[in-house]
Every structure is written in structure tokens, then in C-alpha cells.
Amino acid sequence: MRNKWKTSMALSVIMSIIVMLAAPAYAAQDAKQHAAAFRANFYVSTSGSDEWSGTLAEPNTTTTDGPFRTLGRAQEAVRSSIAAGMSADVVVAVREGTYEINETLSMTEEDSGRDGHQVVYRNYPGELPVLSAGKRLTDWTTEDGIVYEAKLDPSLSFDTMYENGARSIKARYPNQGAPREGYNHVSAYLKDTPKRAFAFASGDIPLMKDVSELEAVVWGGGPDGEWSWSRDTIGVDAVDFEKGTVTLKSDSTYELGKGSRYFVQGNLQLLDAPGEFYVDQAGGTLYYRPYKLPIANQTIVVPTLGRILSFVGSSAETPVQNLVWDGISVEHGDANTVQLGSDQEDGAVYLSNAKDIAIKNSRIENVGLTGIQASGYAQGIAVSGNEIGSIGNTGVRFNAPYATRSYVNKNNTIVNNHIYSTGQIFGSAAGLELANSGDSTIAHNRIHDTPRNAISLSATPINQSIGQQIEGTTVTEGNKLMFVQTKNNVFEYNDLSNANTDSQDTGLFYSWGLAMNNTFSHNYVHDSNIYFSFGYAVYLDDEAYQFTVADNLITHQQDAGEGQMRGSFFVKGIGNKLVNNVLANSPNAQSGFTTAQSCCSHGPTSGNDYVGNIFYNAGQSLYAHNGWAADVVANNDYNAFYQPNGKYILNNTTGAVTLADWQSVQNGAYDQHSVITDRLFANAAGEDFRLAYDSLARGLGIHSLDVSQMGLLPGYPFADAADKLDRVYVQANMELSGDALSLKDKQQAQLSVLGRTKNGYAIAVDHQHVSFKSDNAKVAGVNDLGVVRAGKAGKAKITVTVNRDGFVSKQELYVFVGDRLSDDVMQTPKQTLVLDETTSLHLYGQTALGQVMNLPGASISYRSSDESVVKVDAAGNLKAAALGSATVTATVKDKETGAVFRKQAVISVVTAKLNGLKATLEHKGLHPGESSPIRVTGTMSDDTDADLTKAAFAYVSDNEKVATVDAQGKVAITGTGSAYVTVTATLQNVTKTARIYLVTFAQEQLPASWKVASFGNASGTASFLDGRYTVSSNGYDVWGKADDFVYLYQNAHVEDGEELSVTAHIESVNNTNGNASSGVMLRSGTGDGDKHVHFRLLPSGDALIVYRTETGGESSYAYGLKFQYPEGGTIRLTKTDKVVTVSYLDTAKNEWVKLQDIAIDLGNDVLAGVGVFAQSDVLTESKISDLEVKVGK
Questions:
Q1: Rounded to two decimals, what is the model's pTM?
Q2: Once rounded to an integer, what is the mean pLDDT over residues 644-663?
């Protein structure tokens, strides 16, 4: 039986925040009532005076007393009033208006609440005050009506500014565009100074007379230019326009290889677009091109501070504590972009040595640093109900030092915040980040529009430190967990979308380093794309340890974009559990669940569980395991799959190409109880992912997700009342099971509707906008208020229709009255076992009215007719004890009705059984009108060849317009297109399947001497036009002991002492899979396992050299180099006697460079050409030019 894992959350904390936010202090509807009853100790107003007492909410009639003018003066008053102790909370109420400051408002331990009470700085009810570090500019001059000038204090410098609440940017080239636009690319790798200098193409940087203030904003792409992990802003030391090189004043984080992205900024000559500015520091002049005119009507603000508000105690022993910041916006902050290192540890709101501080119901926007940064000792910090947007760096970041045993950043809550448009200055920023921070709850946040991760979790990569000392202690495998601080965090009910907009090798949720026992559950991860290179949705990178990833909905990944969404899940690490997740409607993703082995001493990937998940049209393949080993997965079962195209395939998993293969490897270790079914959800096409009442997923123990709770809480303070409805959810005052509600006779249920708007706000939909209708009122009637009353036994469908402001939606709810268990289904994955082999039975129920259930409350027992042959335990686990057979009986008793149901299975125990099946066509590369018998071979569980003479066979084609197959297994090609031919063999009650995927084409028309051959079960073709070949292939690989690919080749005879070469320019390889390949090949013959050398390019531009030196032997490989598309690479193999030389053309020097000599005897009659495979059923296509085979001395 499947194991179950449950996630937990800090319920008391969440509930207290829900209550706190349900009626925000400044809600417009009750502002007057609150204001009339409201009392504070001190007040601050823009009409006040710091000479007054500050104890009145507004000036008195004689204007002799009233509120303070500044928060600084209020702070002084509070300090004085609490110095001797507190007997009640002290409240400072801030009236409407903008409060400009040019020094950080700093809270220290002198400002702390004490004696069990808090100091509260909050908005006056119904009003929205702003704490601003900005200075408004109004005195403008212009010479041309386009660029305007304003005089500045020469001491004032800034890296950003704001116009009417929109960010303005430094003058730059290329100009800013949509995400990923506005960059040029490094034209060459300067290997002597790869971090300090880069090359640019002519015209990519405008000619400038003076570059002394110029800055380069660079994504160091590494030697190959692909990485986009960190974006740096670095001063320019020199530009050589003649040579096309830029020299920087300091190193970039990563090397600036060819293809790395960059732009330059900070020169008056670049000021050519609205919203750009340039500061002449020496002359004290700001040059600005406004977004709108006339400029006098615009609110233009320049920042004077980066850190606007701080809560910093003297030490961890004397923290600032017991303070509340409530309903006061923090805006108009700066960033010192050239000092990225220090600014990573700073924020517009900054906390350190802080405890029990609340920042809530406030807007943090238009700032240059991180929105809210809590560094070092920070405990009991509550960030809730805030709007955090237009942020220079990360939205919210909690961090502590790496490589330490000190655990100081913990027990914090980040709940019900809207975080968006982050990383506007520091491009590698996240929406929310925890770094060496633990035991915290991150829930009900909506995070979107982030250049990198929506949520980032990082930790010390402690595996890399084994053998080293940290704080005087040597790190060992046994004690390494002592150094983990990123632990026990709960991320739940968050809404994450549109992340990864300007980077790669990333995920919406991302973890790196040894993060331990963290939970990511009940999150809505949706509508996000990878625009270049690759990424994932949920990405557990190096050293992930014992994560629980459960009950998440991941949908609409890679609906657009040119990059590779490699998977909804990616795991590197140990003991991670992925349970009860729904992956849906992401057909362009490459895979669902992916793993890889780590490098660089990060430790293994092993012991991970993938159990009880639903894969519904969620990628081209179900699984992709890079660096597969048997211990990568511990438990992999009880999953449900549906692919509209009927293709259930795997990538990069040794011995498994199809789901059927996967279920056979390791003698049936994986997905034994998993099912393929399209009956899963109420309405997947309509994004209604409630489990249908008859969903087979229920029988596997999968439960329905409550998507309505994923995202912001009802009563979110900054919800837009005018925002239109986008989706609705039917709820009840009792437990719903997907689209089903079970009632007893005369029982009642109250239905209601929760809506989510286009921007994710939760609203209760009034009954005036909802109608209810039952199709069988005798079973279950429903009134206009949504009250359902059960009648006679049966099934009724309640249709709930919402019609509000032009939004119309219908949802169906099935009400079952008096339904009873009527039968059970027993899954028996293996009815034939070998000695000591185990398997498990799984039971689920079906009711009289068609519901599928996981037998809740039923009594289940098992019995074997002969325990000496087959043993069975109380959980239905079987073990083969001796040769023979036994009948196993499962008995189910419905405790409510007393009904008893029995199922039986005959289990045979044998010495060996059929373990694998392989089917190939005897004649490859068939065209219409041609035919071929199928050759079927099998292997037994003891690795011997199977004797299939007594096997029963069945053959099926899924598209007879392309291929038919008769009862004897003869395939006839009837047309062009694609078809699956499935072969089923049953031997000793063991059934295995194999499939051949055919893609047929018309006969090729190629230049003389060129021909096309298919190896393995690959299909494909080749064409020639205007000097260029196009080769298409769905082959799986050239690797292992036998190959599966399409080969465009010539036969060549070479005498001893002669040279044979094949040369080609590989222009492109379509990215059907990251390992799809096209490259030159020399081969000893037409057998699948013949000797060969294959020098190939991948879609990434990486080159790989693969060779097999013995017929039927294993393959070896070596890395080549990196090419860039669209240039591609010109590559060559040269055979001289028993050596093949691998080389490429260095186009910059126009000379051939040798990479490697391979000792291999290919003989005198050799095949020479280009081999292509897709590592997918989807055809890849490769464009090839300058293809030439030469023989000579």
C-alpha cells in the first residue's frame, strides 16, 4: 500500500494574520467609524509642527497645538514616554500625506516595546501616508523641448529616479525594451582577461568621446556565454573602439564568454529615450527626458537614500523588538548599483538584531534596494498584508551568514503579501528569498514578474566543506547537519507566476545548498516560460535534502518562449518526497519529473520519492533522469498519467524509453500500480482540476486540491474592487471531495462561491450573482441561497452559474445521497514471481452510483491459500517463498453496511520469467508500398534469452492509413505520416510490450551516392536543396551497445595508408530534447551495434565525441567544445588506418584544430556521413551544409 505524507503549517500564526487582515485598519467602508473611535498617543501630520505636543489628531482652533510634523519628532516623544517602562501599547498615528526624509528613520533598542507591550507606528484610519526618501524636482529648463535640465546639489548622486510612480533609468544603449530585450552580446571571449574585459561587434557600442562615467551592466555567461546567474553593474575603465574591446574597473562575477549579454549606461550621449536620465555630477546638473509632457504637470522625484527605514539593535543580546509598522508606505529609494556586494545586504526597509517586529498593511514600492531585508539575527519578524512592487532588488529577503553553526535567522512569517516587478536594477533578484534562514512560514503570497526565481531558498553547500573546518570544527559526513540553518521552512498556499523572465538555469521555486526538511505544499505554480536556455518550474538543485513537495498545482509552463522548460520538477539531492501534485496543461515542457546527479562534490542524488502525482498533458515525456542510477528513486508508484497523443515516453533513463519499459526495469520496481486514464478531473480544459467523482486517481489514494485557497487571503488590504473575476470555486460548509458531495437522508449543505480576480484577489461572490440548479430535485434540491437538501437515494447534478460584470462561469457539483460501496477493484501488478520476489496488492472501491474511492473506513484483510509458496502480510505485501502457485484472497468489509467483498489472484512462483521485450523491423527506412516483418526478442529475469516460441503475440497499429500489421507481425507501409506499432507478448502469465514508432516519408531524392538509413527503431528522412541537406530523425541515441538514429551517408572504400574524411557544417539542431544531436560519423557497417565515431553538436551548441571500438561493445565519450548558433560549427572526422582524428574549423583563424585521436579499426569499407537523433518521438530537424566525403593520400 502506498505511504502517505502530510504537510503541516503554522496554523495559529496564519489564523491570527487572517483575523488581523480581514478588516484592515484603513478600509474605506468603515474609515469614519474607526476614526471617530480611534485614539493614539501621538499623531503626525503634514499640517503639524514639531513644536507642538503631538497629542492631537489635527491642529486646534487656535493653531497653538496639534500633531507633530515629522516621524522623527514622534520617535523622540515615544522614546521619552517609554523610557521608564510601559503599562500599555504606545501608538503613533500618521495622517495622510508624503513625509520626505533625507536621513534613514532608524529604530533601535531605545524604541523597543517593553513590559509586554508594543510600540505601534500606523496610519490614521482610512488614510494612506507615505514615508519617502525622494525629493521632488520642479525647476526645469530646456533648449529643445525634449531633454530637460535641473540643478542639483553636487553632493546628491543617485542611480534611479521616478516619474508619476514609474521608474526612470540611466541613459543606456541599447535602449530598454521588454524583458530580455535591450541587450547586446559579447562578440568574442578574451581568455586572458575574461572577467575584466569583453569584446563587442562594430556598432554595438556608440562612439563616445568620454567614457569616464560609463558603466557596463553584464550577465557573465561563463566561457560559453550561456549562463545568466548573476547580473553585475561595473564601471568602465576604457573602451577601445578600434579593437572593439571594453575594459572594466573590476571583475564580473562570471567570465564574459562569447554570447554573454550586456548593455552600457551612464553617458549623456546615450540619452535618447523617454524615461532616461544622466547626472553630470561635477556640474550639478540632471539631464532628463520625461515620459510625459508638459513636465511641470509631472511628479518627478529623485531619491536621497537607499535605506529608508531600519530596525537595528546594537547586538543580538540587545535587539530592537516589539515594534509594529502598520499601513505606512515606504517609497522612493535609491541603489548604489556599482556596489552590488554591499547592496545585497541592504534594503529600503532593513532589519538586523531585531525581534518580534511586524511590518504589515503597507506599500513598499519604487525603491532601489531589496524591499524588506532582514539580515543576521532576525527572529519573530512578521511581514504581512503588504504590497511590494517596483523593486530594484529582491522583494523580501531574510538572510544570515554562510558556513557557520550560528542559527540566528528563524521563526519568521511572510504571509499575504503581493510581491511583483522585482529585480528592476539588480537583474538576478528573486521575488522572495531565504538564505540560511529557517523555521519560518511563507504562505498566501502572490509573487509574479520576477527576472529570476519567484521564491529562492539557499543554504551553505555543506557537502563541499567536508574535511574542512568551520569555526574550529572539522565538517564530516556525520556532523554536517550541525551547519544547516535553511531548514524546517513551510512554503504553502502561494501563487507563483511569470518568473524567470530574464535569466536561465532557474525555477519559480528554487533551492540550492543543503536545505533540510523544508516543505513546499498547496502552491499554485502557473503561467511561466523559459525564454532562452533552460529552466524548470520547481527546481531542487544541489544538495536538496528531505524536502516535502506536496499538493501543488503546476500548470501552463512554457506556453511561449524559445527556451527549454525541461520539467515541472527537477531534483538533485537525497530523500525528497514529491507527493499528490498535479502537473497539467504544459505540453511544451520537455518532461514532468526530472533528476540529475550533482557535480563538484555536492553529493549524490538518491532515495527520492515520486508517489501519487497526476501528470496530465504536462510535457513531451513523463520522466527524464540524467545520470540514471537505480538508487535515484526510492518509491515511484501510484501515479496517474494522461497524454492526448498517447505517447508515454521517458528520456535519459537507462533501459526505459516507454512507460511500459519503465514498469519492467529492475524487475518491476516502479509505477506498478500507476494508471493511464483520461478520467481524472472535473474539467481540465476549463482549468477545473477538482477530481471527478469517478476519477481513477481517487482509487490510488490521490486527493483533490483546494486551489481556491492558493494565493492572497480574503480581505487583502490593497485588493482592487474594480478587478474583474477570472475564476470561481464552489465551496460547502462540509467536506467536498473534488466535484462530489455525499449527504445522508435529509442532510443539508450550504454552498457558496469564492472568486479570484484576474490579479488574484479573493472575493466572496454575492448570491445575487449566483444561481443554483439541480437536475434531480428528488435526490437533492437546492434553493436560491445555495442550500442543498438531500432527498431520496441517488445522484443529482447541481449546476452553479456565476454571472457578474460580464464574467460568466458554470461549475458542476455532484450530490450523492445514500451511496454505498458496491464492489472493490484489486490491482495485482505481478501474478508471476521468482523466488524471494515481492509485490503488493492495492484495493480501491466503487460505489453503486459510480464513485471511485480509496476505501475509507473499510476493514481489509488478506489470506494466502499456501503460505509456504506465497506469503502475504496485513498490508497486502506478497513474497515468493517457494516454487508453485497460491491463491491470494483480499476481503473488504464495509463497516457502515457490513457488506463483504472478495477478490482473488492466483500467484505463480517460477525460476525465471519474461522481463523485457524488444521489437525491431528487419528492414529499416520503409517507404509507402514497402513492408517488413517484425523481429521480436526477449530477456528473462535471470538475464538469459527468452524462448518466445510458446509466447502469445498480439500486434496493433494505431494508424492504418500509415502502417498496417498482420497477425504474424508483418508491417506494410500504406502512406506517409506516423504510426505506433505495438507488440504484446505473454509468456507464463507475464505480459510485456514493445513498440515501434514509425514516421514514413516519400522516397528521398538525393545527390548521387548519398543514401538514408535508419538504425534501431528510428524513423526519418533527408532532403537536399540549394546546397543544403535537411535530415529529420526521431531516433533515441547513438550510445550503449546499439544505436537508434537516422544516417545520411555514402559507402567509401579506403586502402591502407589512404585518408578518409567526412566534413560538415552543422547549422542547426531542433531542440526536441537537450541531448538531441547532429554530427559527422564514420561507421564500420549497417548493424545497430557496429563500431563508429560520432562527433556531434547538441541544441545548446555543446559538442560531444562518442565512439564504440568493438562491435556490440559499450560506447565511450569525450567532451568537445562549445559552438554558438546560428553560426553553428564546421567539424570533421579523418580516418588514417586504425586512427580517427577529430577536428573542427577555427573560423577566426581559418585553420583546422585537432581535438583528439581515437584508436579504432573501422576496416577498409566504411560508411561516412551525418548521424541525427532526437531523443524523442518528436522529429528533430538538422540543417547541414558543406557536407563532403573525401578519400585520398
A1: 0.89
A2: 82
